[in-house]
Amino acid sequence: MKLTKSIITAGLFLFFGTSLAYADNCTGMDVQVARTSETTDLGNGHAITIVKLYSQTVSADCSKCNGTTGECSGTVLTTPDGKTQSMGYCARRDKDGDTVSSSWHRAPGADKGTWKTIGGTGKYADSVGDSGWWQNAWADGVMFTNAWGGTCQ
Questions:
Q1: Which tens digits make up the pLDDT trace of 94-137?
Q2: Cys staple from 152: which of 10, 26, 50, 106, with CB 3.0 to 4.6 Å?
Q3: What secondary structure letter does DSSP report for 18?
């Protein structure tokens, strides 16, 4: 039960989401399945959870990022004031073997987070610097779907 609760908490705050006031030129969904989740409960409402998730992106308007598959890993911190924040990285590969990596962050207590492309090979080499928003769209405890959008090259 504790593992499921930790996975749900982590999934609610991980990678990609619904609309903010950004001028999005690309949008999509990130479908994730939890691999591992480990929580250290320090007491008094203070806890840290480390997660690893399988990830696949789906996008109708970003043909190069549609179907990229890989892993996202991150940390979710809950502070005694009840606020949660998270940050981590994703690394994915496409059917051609080209790779892309991104960082993500969600500020304390925020519903939406941000992402940024930080590295890539092949068709993704020109994507470094792409950025946008993410937010959880659906979760069942082990599987998560996050909507995302942003500025993509």
A1: 999 999 999 999 999 999 999 999 999 999 999 999 999 999 99
A2: 26
A3: S
Let me know: does 22 contact 31? Beta carbons within 8 Å.
no
Residue 74, Ramachandran bin (φ over 0: left; ψ between -120 and 50: alpha; else beta): beta
Q: With contact defined as beta carbons under 8 Å apart, do 47 and 40 qualify? A: yes
Spatial contact of 94 and 127, defined as CB atoms under 8 Å apart: no
DSSP state letters, 57-109: EE-SS-TTTTT-EEEEEEEEEE-TTS-EEEEEEEEEE-TTS-EEEEEEEE-TT
**In 10 A of CB 147, how many CB atoms?**
19
The structure tokens listed for 66 are 């549609």
